[in-house]
Design brief:
Strand content: 15-25%
CATH architecture of one domain: 3-Layer(aba) Sandwich
Order of helices and strands: HHHEHEHEHEHEHHEEH
Number of strands: 7
Strand order of the largest sheet: 3-2-1-4-5-7-6
Radius of gyration: 17 Å
Structural class: alpha/beta
Largest sheet: 7 strands, mixed
Number of helices: 10
Distance between the termini: 49 Å
Length: 242
């Protein structure tokens, strides 16, 4: 499919509204990514969203909307935990190539797909690994090694904190992409944030550009080391949040 056949105007307008610079090559990478995702989605459950306009809004623009609240044009180490079909990690890498990104997911079929995407798009400084957060966060090469951890995974914020905060360096930031009402969830996560070495959560609400969809970024800065006891063994953080 030719790049001009994909309705790119909405996407371009959305990126411009977020203040994100982009090139023809980047737009081409997004269209190839879309085609690969739709094709693989026939055999591997990657996403329920497959229409181009919806992918643009709910995957692409949602993924990179972080640029409106954080400077992403720098050489930082980023972990995308529970990346699924590669969101937000792949869109972030395409548009902010200086970032080094690690995509992590517990389903190997998704990781195999993401490795193909990385190769097909010619992306450098982005890697995909298979593993569960509870185990990977105990490995020396990953624990407290990242400047930023992002996650669009659908999980309780307390559980997500236990999965994500152990990966951050002191001074690093965990950003949870959320939708809907989140006040109660943030309140309930206060203990987990404190126990795991984080500072009180900062909530930024916004409407996704070009839509009427309400979104929130819950940002948590790490101010002290995570105790060795965390994360607890596989399954515990989701069944029994701190």
């Amino acid at each position: 499919m030719d790049i001009n056949e994909m309705k790119l105007e909405r996407f371009q307008n959305g990126l411009s509204a977020l203040g994100i610079a982009f090139s023809e090559e980047m737009l081409n990478q997004f269209t190839i990514f879309y085609q690969m995702m739709v094709e693989r989605n026939k055999v591997v459950n990657l996403t329920a969203i497959t229409e181009w306009d919806e992918v643009v809004e709910k995957h692409y623009l949602d993924s990179v909307s972080l640029a409106a609240s954080m400077d992403l044009n720098k050489n930082i180490r980023v972990l995308d935990l529970g990346t699924g079909a590669g969101f937000p990690g792949i869109p972030l890498k395409i548009l902010f190539p200086d970032m080094e990104i690690l995509l992590m997911d517990s389903l190997n079929k998704r990781i195999a797909f993401l490795k193909e995407v990385i190769e097909s798009l010619g992306l450098k400084g982005i890697y995909a690994v298979h593993g569960r957060a509870e185990e990977m966060a105990r490995k020396a090469e990953y624990r407290e090694k990242f400047d930023l951890c992002v996650s669009r995974a659908v999980a309780n914020l307390s559980s997500l904190c236990e999965y994500c905060i152990p990966f951050l360096k002191i001074g690093g930031i965990f950003v949870s992409y959320k939708s809907g009402e989140i006040e109660e969830e943030v309140k309930q996560a206060k203990k987990a944030v404190s126990v795991l070495g984080g500072k009180a959560a900062n909530v930024q609400k916004f409407v996704l550009t070009g839509t009427d969809l309400s979104r929130s970024f819950v940002s948590i800065e790490k101010i002290k080391r995570t105790p060795k006891a965390y994360p607890r063994k596989a399954g515990v953080p989701s069944k029994n949040p701190i």
